[in-house]
Amino acid sequence: MTPSEQIFSRYPPPTGWRYRENHGSGAKRSNYNNGIDDVRDSETYYPCINGNINCNQYRGFNKVRVQVTDTPERPVLTLPPSLTEGTPARITCSVQHTCAHNPPVLQWNKVGFNRTERSEELEGGVRRFVSEIEYIPTYQDDGSPIVCESNYRTGQVLEDTATLDITYPPKNVAVIKLDGEKKIEEGEEVTLQCASDANPPANNYTWYRIKKKEELKEHGEEITVTINWENMRFSCSARNWLGNNDSSIIDLRLFFYAKVAHMGGKREFEEGEVLQLECHFSMSRQWPFQYSWYRNRIPLNNETQRTLRIYDVKESDSGNYSCKVYTSDGNFSSL
C-alpha cells in the first residue's frame, strides 16, 4: 500500500474508525472515514501518512477547517398548552448535539414517571437527544419553575425553564372576619369574607348560617351580618369551573368579651365604703354562666358570682379588676 493509500487525520485514529476500499477499472483506491470525539478547539485537518513516514511532506494535500463554537446547544422544553391538577401530562426536553458517542445528560427538577429517552438522527451529523416524563400536576406546583438541564462532558451545564400554570378547584376555603381579632358585641355588624386558593379564582360563593345549615341569599365573596346569639356561626362554599370546596365553621362567639362595670358609676371610693362591680356579658341571659374575678390578673378566691362586692374597702383593695365568663361554648374574658 502506497503512502497516499493510508490517509487519516492528523490525530491518531480513534476506536471505531472505518477503512473502506473501492475497486474499479484496474485502479485501487482506499478511503478512511474518521470521527474525532471531544473536539475542544478550532483546528485545520489534513491527510497524513502513518507514524512511519514524515507527515510534513503531505501538508500540500487538501485541508479542512473545523470551527468549534464555545457554547453548545441549550435544551428545549415542550409542555402541553394547559395543565390541570391530577391529570397526567407528557413533558419533553430535547437538545441537539454532534457527539454520537457522548451525548449530553438531561436532568429534571420535578418528579416524573414512565421516563423515556431516545436519540434521533438529523441532517449533517446532528443528533437530537430527547427525554420525556409523565408529570402529574399538583396545585402546590402552580407558579413554580420546571427546569431541564443538559450536562455536557466538558462540564458545561445549560438549562431551559418554564413556569407551571396549573388549574385547580378552590383549596383552603375559610371564612375570615375582616376586622381581625377585634371584639364584638351583640347587635353589631360584622363583615365576613370567603377566602380560597384557586386557579382560576373562585367566582361563585354560597353562604350558610349554621343553625339548621340555612343557606343565605348572599352569593358574593363578602357578606355583612348583624350579630345576635342566634346568628353566630357561619360557613361558605367557593366554586370555579373545576369544582367547589367548603370552609370550616367560624364561631363568632369566640370574639365576644366580658366587661367590668362599676355599679352606681363610681370609680373612686373612700375607705370603709362598699365596692360593687358587675361582669357584663352581651349574650342571652338564658345560659347558666359561671364567673371568676381577678385583681391585677391575680385570681380572687371564692368570688364566682356575676357581681363582686367588697365591704369596708381598704387602700389595699386598689387595682385593676377583670372577670372571666365560663359557658358551654367557651370562656370569655375582660382581660
From TrEMBL:
<dbReference type="InterPro" id="IPR003599">
    <property type="entry name" value="Ig_sub"/>
</dbReference>
<dbReference type="InterPro" id="IPR007110">
    <property type="entry name" value="Ig-like_dom"/>
</dbReference>
<protein>
    <recommendedName>
        <fullName>Ig-like domain-containing protein</fullName>
    </recommendedName>
</protein>
<dbReference type="InterPro" id="IPR003598">
    <property type="entry name" value="Ig_sub2"/>
</dbReference>
<dbReference type="Pfam" id="PF08205">
    <property type="entry name" value="C2-set_2"/>
</dbReference>
<dbReference type="InterPro" id="IPR013783">
    <property type="entry name" value="Ig-like_fold"/>
</dbReference>
<keyword id="KW-1015">Disulfide bond</keyword>
<dbReference type="GO" id="GO:0016020">
    <property type="term" value="C:membrane"/>
</dbReference>
<feature type="domain" description="Ig-like">
    <location>
        <begin position="75"/>
        <end position="165"/>
    </location>
</feature>
<dbReference type="Pfam" id="PF13895">
    <property type="entry name" value="Ig_2"/>
</dbReference>
<dbReference type="InterPro" id="IPR013162">
    <property type="entry name" value="CD80_C2-set"/>
</dbReference>
<keyword id="KW-0472">Membrane</keyword>
<dbReference type="InterPro" id="IPR036179">
    <property type="entry name" value="Ig-like_dom_sf"/>
</dbReference>
<dbReference type="Pfam" id="PF13927">
    <property type="entry name" value="Ig_3"/>
</dbReference>
<feature type="domain" description="Ig-like">
    <location>
        <begin position="170"/>
        <end position="333"/>
    </location>
</feature>
